[in-house]
Specification:
Blueprint lengths: L15 E2 L4 H12 L8 E2 L1 E2 H10 L9 H14 L6 E14 L22 E7 L5 E9 L6 E3 L3 E3 L8 E3 L19 E8 L2 E8 L2 E2 L16 E9 L3 E10 L42 E13 L4 E13 L24 E14 L2 E11 L17 E14 L2 E12 L23 E7 L5 E7 L8 E12 L3 E12 L36 H4 L6 E15 L2 E13 L10 E13 L1
Antiparallel strand pairs: 1-3, 2-12, 4-5, 4-9, 4-27, 5-6, 6-10, 7-8, 10-11, 11-13, 13-14, 14-15, 15-16, 16-17, 17-18, 18-19, 19-20, 20-23, 21-22, 23-24, 24-25, 25-26, 26-27
Length: about 600
């Protein structure tokens, strides 16, 4: 028998599969198993692109192991499913959350099974396929908001995430009842159109760029949604993506700016809770300013499919006056070389992955946010900018056993203290001043017409000033069951997403800081100096987890996850007692 042949079928080739789709996970395992470098790590993906990935393997059925053939058929059956002009879907999910420490682990960020991962009670999905080249999707979720309320006295308020030993996604039984309902949906809603080997997508969607297990440096998968416009075109050996993602301008949720007319600059007064972020914004406010992420990404498959080379250039573009310089929209320009530091912060990233033999893949990422070029001041010299570089090295592999695959990975990452952070163009950030950085906000609706701005790093979710080790081993029969154990360890310095940025000035020492830091020498926009000055140590986090799932019958799944969390020097304060928590999640899902 020769190569596997693809029969023509009336599939919806412009359907977009999300970044966490099992079909792409299966495709990745198939590529590694057969000795190919990874498929494109620039998600999400259209059906047409997944078809090309599958056909590009050009597999001989005789050479496939029984497990690889099963994996191949799983992918094939999924992407070649017959399309419908209109499709209605309903997901029903019941989840329960149990944990042991109801004093210290009480916020969404304290849970390993995060807010973004938690499944809604109901998810109503509408898909349209009006013609060969068009596709639309809207996902209307019935779920709880991240926070119940917020104000400038205490900050965000929630009763959902740890106040009690047991809670569930039946949010109307929790504190505040139906007032917890999240009216901000849909979080996944877009239109897409395209043809053979190209796709355009506009709307709300999650994104992820890179092969990392603990995260990725340019675009992580942890944001609730992006307001995205994406063009991608691809062939067997090359792929190009141009992407924009729009976020609220920081002026929407920061206190009024400092008075720059005075010398020294006069800072503004902090809110009662301690920071400058306004937690009392509402939908009646007039919005101003542009805050846009713009990137182009080029991918090459080299050396007989053994090597991937990926180059990404990106900028964060800001304008308080709503002005957009159309020059920066060029798909082939070098964004950095516009030299518009007062409006933009550029980043360059390189990714390489190699599959030297069947079942083993090695990958690396390097992201450069700031470094000195010839002629600029170097570290320790007056006016030097602190370097901001991130490094990641990992390996992953699989092996066929029984009816599925045993798989595993190990990953190391290091991020410089000032990665993603920067001033707004004047080279020195004062308290209360927002920067042009890779910390972005997503608007979420709260009760009483209140708007909450959830701030996160756009790329690596742990930000700068971190050393991360992550390992996992698991077994999976796609479409049947899986079990995976995970070990995570992080040393995180004192810097966070609100740390102020500064060039080297006198004896400040910002350009000499190394990861992980044990003191916080600049100011902070979330915490006053009395709190920042307490930071004297490296926070160390250990997470040991076990997660699994089983498909009882088509559409009916059960799953569970348990994590032990240990944090030494919490909040980077050596006198703070060590925190421990055991977190258990169990759930059942049914898809109609």
């Amino acid at each position: 028998m020769g190569s596997i042949v693809f029969a023509a079928s009336p599939v919806n080739q412009q359907k977009i599969y999300p970044i966490d789709s099992p079909v792409f996970e299966a495709m990745t395992q198939l590529y590694i198993s057969e000795g190919f470098s990874l498929p494109s790590t620039t998600g999400p993906y259209s059906t047409n692109e997944l078809m090309l990935m599958l056909s590009h393997l050009n597999l001989d059925e005789k050479s496939l192991t029984r497990q690889a053939k099963t994996l191949y058929e799983y992918v094939y059956d999924t992407v070649y499913e017959e399309g419908k002009i209109f499709d209605f879907g309903l997901d029903i999910n019941l989840e329960g959350y149990v944990h042991t420490d109801t004093t210290n682990f009480i916020l969404p960020k304290d849970w390993i099974y995060s807010y973004e991962e938690r499944k809604p009670l109901l998810d109503i999905i509408l898909e349209t396929h009006p013609s060969e080249h068009f596709y639309g999707l809207s996902s209307f979720s019935v779920t709880s908001a991240r926070f119940y309320d917020s104000n400038n006295t205490v900050g965000p308020i929630t009763g959902q995430y740890g106040k009690y030993a047991f809670t569930s996604n039946l949010f109307f039984f929790n504190d505040y009842g139906f007032e917890n309902f999240d009216f901000g949906m849909p979080y996944r809603a877009f239109g897409a159109f395209g043809g053979n080997r190209w796709s355009v997508q506009v709307g709300r969607e999650q994104l992820s760029w890179g092969p990392g297990k603990s995260g990725n440096f340019v675009l992580g998968d942890h944001l609730n949604y992006h307001n995205v416009g994406r063009l991608t075109t691809y062939s067997n050996h090359f792929k190009y993506t141009l992407l924009t993602s729009f976020f609220p301008h920081p002026s929407e949720y920061y206190h009024k700016p400092p008075d720059y007319a005075t010398t020294p600059v006069t800072p503004v007064t902090r809110y009662d809770y301690g920071g400058y972020v306004d937690y009392e914004t509402n939908q009646d406010m007039v919005l101003n300013g542009i805050n846009m992420f713009l990137a182009h990404r080029l991918e090459w498959r080299l050396f007989q499919e053994k090597v991937n080379l990926v180059l990404t250039e990106a900028i964060m573009y800001q304008s308080l006056e709503n002005t957009l310089d159309l020059r920066i929209l060029s798909p082939t320009a070098i964004f950095h070389n516009y030299y518009i530091r007062g409006n933009a912060n550029s980043m360059l990233a390189l990714e390489i992955d190699v599959t030297p033999i069947k079942h083993l893949n090695i990958y690396t990422q390097i992201a450069v946010d700031e470094f000195a070029i010839p002629g600029e001041a170097t570290s320790g010299v007056e006016n030097a900018n602190p370097n901001a570089i991130a490094y990641m090295v990992g390996l992953q592999g699989n092996y066929p056993i029984s009816k599925g695959f045993l798989y595993g990975s190990f990953e190391w990452a290091l991020t410089d203290p000032y990665l993603y952070l920067r001033d707004n163009g004047n080279r020195h950030q004062v308290a209360g001043e927002y920067g042009i950085n890779y910390v972005v906000a997503v608007r979420e609706y709260l009760r009483g017409r209140r708007i909450y701005y959830q701030e996160d790093f756009l790329g690596y979710k742990y930000g700068g000033d971190a050393i991360v080790l992550n390992g996992q081993v698991g077994y999976k029969e796609f479409g049947k069951w899986h079990l995976v154990a995970n070990l995570f360890y992080m040393m995180h310095g004192t810097h966070d997403k609100w740390t102020l940025w500064s060039k080297e000035q006198g004896t400040v020492g910002t350009s000499l800081e190394t990861t992980p830091t044990s003191d916080h020498i600049t100011g902070n926009n979330m915490y006053p100096e009395t709190e920042i000055n307490k930071r004297d140590s490296v926070e160390k986090t250990l997470v040991i987890g076990l997660q699994g799932g089983y498909t009882i019958l088509s559409g009916l799944d059960v799953f569970g996850q348990v994590d032990f969390v240990n944090i030494v020097n919490p909040e980077n304060v050596s006198t703070n007692a060590t925190k421990n928590d055991i977190q258990l999640t169990i759930g059942v899902s049914y898809h109609l």
